Amino acid sequence: MNKQVTHRQLIQHAKVYDRESPFHLKTTSILVEKGKIAYIGPNPPSCDCVLKGKGLGVSPGWIDLQADFCDPGFEHRETLITGMAAAHAGGYVGVCLWPTTQPTLQTKSQLKHIQQVSKEHPNLKIYPFASLSKNRKGKQLTDMLELHEAGAFGFTDGEISIENPQLLVQALRYARGFSGLIIHRSEESQLGEQQGLHEGKSSLMMGMIGSPAVGERIRLYRDLNLLAYTQGRLHVSGISTAEGVELVAEAKNAGLQVSCDVSIHHLMWNEENVLNFDPNYKVSPPYRSEKDQQSLLQGLKKGIIDSIVSAHTPCDIEDKTHPFPLARPGVLGLQTLFSSLNQLDQENKLSLDISLPILASGGWSVLGLKNPCIKVGEPACLSVFDTNTTWTWNKKTNKSLAYNHPLFGEKLKGIPVATFQGSDLSFCYDKDILNKT
Question: Is 178 helix (H, G, I), strand (E, B) or coil?
C-alpha cells in the first residue's frame, strides 16, 4: 500500500456519489484536513497533496460482504495479506471474511489473530463472519454470543445452505438476543447435480444436468417463513433468480428484517457465457438465464437488492484446469468490481448513478453500522476512483495469489485511485506499475 499521511489532502473536481450528501451527483472539490472533511465546493484552498483526473469520482468508503481469503488452510490460493492487498487495490475500506477456512473460523483465538493481522493495514478494516454451525456441518450451533463479543460481525456457513430448518430457527432466535446477523445461502442443494450450470439453455446444449431456479425459490421461501416465525435478522447471500428477487421484495413489504446481495459476476454474465466450457465461468450459484440477469439489475434499480458483492473466491491452477463439471466453482472479484460496474454503465445496463450509492451504503447498512457521509465536518472515510483510466489486469497489477477470472490479462476501463481512513490517504496502485502495463 502506497500510504501518505499529511494534514491536508484535496480531491479536485470529482463527481460525488452519496445519496445522503447535498452534493450527490455534483462535481466539486473536497478538502480533507486532519482526518475530516473540511471543505466542499468549487474554490478550495491550495494544497500540496492533490488528487485529480478527468473522470474522477468519490463516494463513501466501500465494504464488501463476501470474500474468501482462504487463510488458514488454503494459503496457496490466498492469504490474509494478499487478500487485503487485493481489497485495497479494489478501492475498499472494509471487507467481510467468510469462515470458509481450515479449520473453520469459529473460535475467539482465530478472531484475535485476524484482528492482529488487520492492524498492519489501517486503511482496510476486516469484518469477520464466524461459522454458524460447528465446522460448517449444519448439526450444532457455534458459541455465537461468545464469538459476537469477540468481534464476529455475523454468522454463516458460507456457500453451504442449512438443511435442517430447526437449526436455522435456533440461530435466528439466539442471534436476536444480541441483534446478531445471520447470513445464509438459500439454495436447495439436493435438487439437481451441482455442476455449475443453470437448468436451461446452457445445460441442454452442453448435455449436462443443471440446477433449476426453483431450488433457490424453495429454500428462500422456507427461510423467509422461518424469519417471519422468529423475527430475527437475515441476510440472503448471492441471490441469483427472478423468483428470489420477488420473494425478498414481498418479505420487505411485510416488514421482515431481511436484506440481500448479488455478486458482480451475476450482473455481468448469464448462462450464455458458459457454453464454451471455460471453467473460469463456473460459479456457485450458477449463472442463470438472461431473464434472471435482467431481474437482478432491476432489483438494484428498485432498491430491493441491498448490496453488490465481489464474491471473491480464489482458486489455484489445478482447480480451474479440470473439465468444467469437475472444476472448483469460484471467481476473483475484489480488484475488478469497480471496473465491472464501469463497464455495465458504459453498456447502459446499470448506471453508476445507481450502482455506486448501493456499493457505498450496502455493506454498512447490512452490518448495522453508521454510513459515512460526504458532508463538511464528517470523518473522511472515502473511496476515490477514475472512470476514464484504462489499465491492464495482469501479473504486474494483480495483488491476489490467484488469477481465476475470465478477464485476467485484458485491458479494463475504470480503476480505484485511493482510499481515505481519517488522516490516512492510501493510493490503490503505484503509478509506475500502471504505466508499465
Answer: coil
Say what the pLDDT of residue 286 is: 95
- Do 191 and 218 form a contact (C-beta atoms < 8 A)? yes
Interatomic CA distance for residues 386 and 423, integer angstroms: 21
Contact 61, 360 (CB under 8 A): yes
The reported pLDDT for the residue numbered 431 is 73
Neighbours of 289 (CB within 10 A): 19
Q: Which residues of the chain have pLDDT under 70?
A: 1-6, 192-194, 432-437
Report the percentage of the chain scoring pLDDT > 70.
96
Which helix (H) or strand (E) segment holds residue 22: the answer is none
| Beta pairing partners, 11 | 30, 51
CA atoms of 289 and 162, how far apart (whole Å) = 25
Residue 370 has a CB neighbour count (10 Å cut-off) of 10
Question: Grid coordinates 483465538 are at which residue?
Answer: 109
**Across the chain, what does the average pLDDT equal?**
94
Instruction: Give the three-class secondary structure for 29.
Output: strand
For residues 416 and 338, the answer to whether their CB atoms sit within 8 Å is yes
If you ran DSSP here, which 8-state letter would residue 211 be given? B
Give me the half-sphere count of Cα atoms (radius 13 Å) on the Cβ side of residue 283. 32
pLDDT tens-digit readout, 82-104? 999 999 999 999 999 999 999 99
* CA-only gyration radius of the chain, Å: 21
What's the pTM? 0.95
Q: Classify each residue of 185-202 as buried b or exposed e, where b means 16 or more C-beta atoms within 10 Å of its C-beta.
A: bbbbeeebebbbbbbbbb
Which string of b and e fits 310-344 if b means at least 16 CB within 10 Å?
Answer: bbbbbbbeebbeeebbebbbbbbbbbbbbbbbbbb
Q: Which three cell numbers stand for residue 177?
A: 438476543
Buried b (16+ CB within 10 A) or exposed e, 70-82: bbeebeebbbbbb
Q: Are strands 424-427 and 411-421 parallel, antiparallel or unpaired?
A: antiparallel
Closest listed residue to residue 262, CA positions, set 233, 235, 289, 226: 235
**H or E element that contains 372:** none
In the numeric block, which cell numbers belong to residue 275? 457454453
SS3 of residue 219 by DSSP: helix
DSSP-derived secondary structure for 54-96: TTEEEEEPEEEEEE---TTT-TTT--HHHHHHHHHHTTEEEEE
Task: Specify the pLDDT at position 432.
Answer: 65
